[in-house]
Amino acid sequence: MIRSVNRTGVLMMALILTGCVVKQQQPAPVEPTQPVEPTQPVPAPEPIPQPQPIPQPPKLKTINWDASVQPLVAQMLNAAGPEAGSVLLVDRIKNSTNGALQSEKATDSIQNALNNNGKYTLVSSDQITQAKQTLGLPADDSLNSRSKAIGLARYLNAQYVLYSNAQGDVKTPTLQMQLMLVQTGEIIWSGNGVAQN
User: For 20-166, where are the alpha helices, taking DSSP H only?
Assistant: First the structure.
């Protein structure tokens, strides 16, 4: 009986074992691997530029118009000629230099040098501006000429006109002044000088 139990037990075991399906583990699916690229060196960060000092602009040489025109105006006033109280128009200085010139400052300096001179009564800047507008001339007319200056002086009933011209190098221009009789256009005085810095 023990033998038969043993046999029966072994048989049962054999049946159980044969009836059991052994599950085999399937290997995990293998994904295709991508070729590994060689690692590139990480670029070093660009250095942060340090702020550079801002260069100073070149110092512009300015012309001392008052000192430049005073000697010429003094020469003109010492020249014999007009009666006291004659009306004088100071025309805007003409720029014949090789650059931009502060024509307005130069003209103002000439007018200031002639203020209270005892010989001439000056046509005011406002009168000149109004007359130029009436005649259709721009206030900052850079194409001024002797004939325009004389025409403007006639319109304003001036007896004399002072025509000025700056020429040569803009840094040290040569100044030329001419005092003209409006009625005839005759130049009754002329003077030259170099502008001073």
Answer: 65-78, 103-114, 125-135, 146-155
